[in-house]
């Protein structure tokens, strides 16, 4: 299975694959019949390591670092060591793998996480369980953290995430409201509530939260980029552009630079402003990260706004070759074909796009496209 945008040490992202492997050995531990992410190339230019262990592996182990011995000791504490396949709530239900001769199954051992004593202990374990998609257990731990420290806003926000992940949006919203009563100037919490309000069709409330978040979010932080995309969802692309300006200026060596440039390209195209600069942003993103469907889709809209319908169609063709079910690319390609003529040349694309996303035409009209 193909995978993209893998990151680790350094500024670059890499294309890769999720592959089944017979076994992965780390020290004396061997994990049988699992899946891992791999890249076709060296990590960090070949100067560092051949394998990186991520947070998924660390969450499944209790790790001790002995600097004076230059050794790391670890014990298995339960859960999935590799989370390339997301579990729903708890460990996998599949039957245990038959062990080869000479191998002994290792059961999860008790550790400090298994016996929390303070609110911080419960919160750490709750967030670890949330990261492992064990939502019911995460909520139980965060309940206890809140019982012990009922004025800690972060605990309510963490439980809001757990409730949302488990599908309980009502309780998630109540927890977010409580978190913001305790910490009203927290930009992260305001963004979370804005997205939740947007899902409930409360656009005015979401916009109020977004503007409040903009006042307290550091302009150069990546959180400001998330806020920019929120303004896009609120049909305010022009409001998002200066947010991207500050983030891009501060993150020129970041491995997310390509997606940031694409984001600003997209906002400029939606707002129909600075189209030459938008085209430069998209070209830089593609040069940096390669031909990605999202980048080609953005550049297609820039060409469409410029009236270069042949170039727009070429970009949408390339985007749809990579991801055939992009409703927006299909719809916009149809409009570009209509513009070149005859007037019904793009009807098949527009019909296919509407079948994939019923409101795609309405979305275009919001940005004064088509209609």
Cross-sheet strand order for the largest sheet:
1-2-3
Which residues form runs of ≥5 with pLDDT under 50? Answer: 8-12, 85-93
Top-tier CATH class of one domain? Mainly Alpha
CATH superfamily of one domain: Tetratricopeptide repeat domain
Overall helicity: 40-55%
Question: What would your notes on this structure say?
Answer:
Among the domains are: 1-86, no CATH class; 255-371, Serine Threonine Protein Phosphatase 5, Tetratricopeptide repeat. With 371 residues, the chain is mostly helical. The relative contact order is 0.05. Strands 1-2-3 form a 3-stranded antiparallel sheet, with no helix packed on it. A two-stranded antiparallel sheet has the order 4-5. 54% of the residues lie in helices and 11% in strands. Helix 14 packs antiparallel against helix 15 (347-356). Residues 8-12 and 85-93 have low confidence and may be disordered.
Helices and strands, with pairings:
Blueprint lengths: L1 E5 L7 E13 L2 E11 L15 H5 L1 E6 L4 E6 L42 H13 L3 H14 L4 H14 L2 H14 L4 H13 L3 H14 L5 H12 L3 H14 L6 H15 L3 H15 L3 H14 L2 H14 L4 H14 L6 H10 L3 H7 L5
Antiparallel strand pairs: 1-2, 2-3, 4-5
Quickly describe the structure.
The protein has 371 residues and is mostly helical. Among the domains are: 1-86, no CATH class; 255-371, Alpha Horseshoe (Serine Threonine Protein Phosphatase 5, Tetratricopeptide repeat).
Descriptive keywords:
371 residues, mainly alpha, Serine Threonine Protein Phosphatase 5, Tetratricopeptide repeat, three-stranded antiparallel beta sheet, two-stranded antiparallel ribbon, 16 helices, 5 strands, globular
